[in-house]
Amino acid sequence: MKNKLPLINVIRNPFRTACVAAMTALLSFSLSGGSALVKSFQNGLESTSNRLGADLIVIPEGSDKSVQDILLQGATGYFYMDSSVYDLVSHTEGVESATAQFYLTSLNASCCSVKVEIIGYDPGSDFVVSPWIQSQFLELKDNITPNDDSREIIAGSNVLVDSGSIELYGHRFNVKAQLSETGTGLDNAVFADMETINKLMDYALEKSFVFPDETKPKESISAILVKISEGYETDDVEKRIRKSIDGVDVVSSAGMISNISDGLSLISSMLMFICIAFFVISFAVLVILFGLSVTEREKEFAVVRMLGLIPGRQKRQYFTEAFIQSLLGSIPGAVLALTLVLVYGNAIKINTDIPYMTVSGPELLIIFLGTAIITAITGPVAAALWIGRIDRADPAVILRRD
Amino acid sequence: MIKTDDLSKSFLRGDKKVNAADNINIEIGDGIIAAFIGHSGSGKSSLVNMLGGLIKPDTGSVLIDGTDIYSLSENELCRFRNKNIGIIPQNRCDLGKLTVKENILLPVSFYMDGTVSDTDIFKRADDLMQKAGIYHLRDCKTEILSGGEQRRVSVVRAMIQSPHLLLADEPTNDLDEENSDIVIELLKTAAGDGATVILVTHEKDILPAADEIYRIEYGKCVNEKDALKAS
User: Fold this and answer.
1) Cβ B80–A308 below 8 Å, yes or no?
2) For the domain B2-230, what is the CATH superfamily, name and number?
3) Is residue B88 within 8 Å of B154, Cβ to Cβ?
4) Shortest Cα distance, chain A CAs vs residue B228, angstroms
């Protein structure tokens, strides 16, 4: 015959159980939600760092904000400089390799099924896009350019693909592959080689796409991604490029990452503050709840002691009860928080200026288990503060009271 | 059998020292119902608590079937009390959220040492509930029972493990005649099973049920029959 007193007490005192569970649910909600958010932002930061690939990005003067918006926020935009800048950059001291990219956007119009950033890259010199694509699609390993057909493109994870293709400027382009989520703006982009881009330029002009004044699209590029040679400082190479080439801005990946990292630190600090505030308040309420409960149950403890339960087991029963009550709150709290983070991931991504990549399945499981266990233990910890009252419950005295 | 050797205990009431027990020596055999009588504050309940292992005496010993209960460790004493001593406190002491049957079986559930099978225990519980007239209430939570029904639950719970010593502090207090009679019959059943039954009372109506009567006054314990013989 098993002693089911802890379970009976949990089930048959629903108000007491609900109060404890509510507090641990609040605790669990804030801890797991906060952890998932911070981890998602960290994933986005790591992904951004991996995806940027280049040490420096050379762009037309005044376009530094635009390129960051495109790469990090998924905004669309276009800006151009003469393609001759590429040779100047490539031959700058300290530059190990450079590759040009061309940016175009689709229109929010009937000619295009989706509004996306179109990034053209040169397969011959590229060291950013191709390795990324190849790392995801092994069949393309020996084929640097994935585009055998100049009507094929590679799409980012957020691009809405209809029956394996998208329409751009009145022409359908097969989506050869769709990339995994990166949490960066590149999830909203499509990639095409220069031959395809040239075709797109023609199609765009047909659809009255207006390039900036004095731009000759087929003699222009949007950005040059630069890898620094070993032994050279990024700052020095950046200064050299600025000094030697007019009309350009230079953005460092480290600088972009650093800005994001600062933003992430701020968000993390805010979330941490909120978590700690919730924790302190919830724990204080739990302590009060258990204190009131112990006072109310003095006679019950005395009766059980009178019936001969040894003090150690009595305390174990008390903690078991507190643990069950806490677990009843910690699990739903964690589940709710993580569900909301998953469901509203896109909204969070859109409304923050920081790359965001939702936690993976294993990460989710770790966060869930970790927070559920930690918050389930807070009940017994709060209850432990009153354990002395149980020890001091003198059956001879208490049972004489009415 | 229960035996005390020079049992003494005093308490402070304000700044005055009061002797609850003053070198008490008693010996009560198996199957005996002993009634302890005395005025309020004479030390009856304190003596019962000492016999039950709930208050440690200042000096002296309590032997139950040869075991000096105050030489045991705290855990040993708890286990001993669970198996060998049944206590019926003066006031209500059931756990209201538990059913009648759950209350009764509660002390049995603390230690599963396999000395008695579940079947036997359930049967004993049913038999005692029938005797006490509460079998039909077995699945009811005790919080809804009347005072008399709750007292009967306490008595049955104290008897469930066939204790060697049964201590009843004012067991018929606040009970009507019918409930009082049921309680006394239960105590007689326990004595019939070989238990030493000690009941504290100041109701003269139940004294005829007792085999021995002890008067407690100012910490002294006197066997009324012996006192009558001496006079």
Assistant:
1) yes
2) P-loop containing nucleotide triphosphate hydrolases (3.40.50.300)
3) yes
4) 32
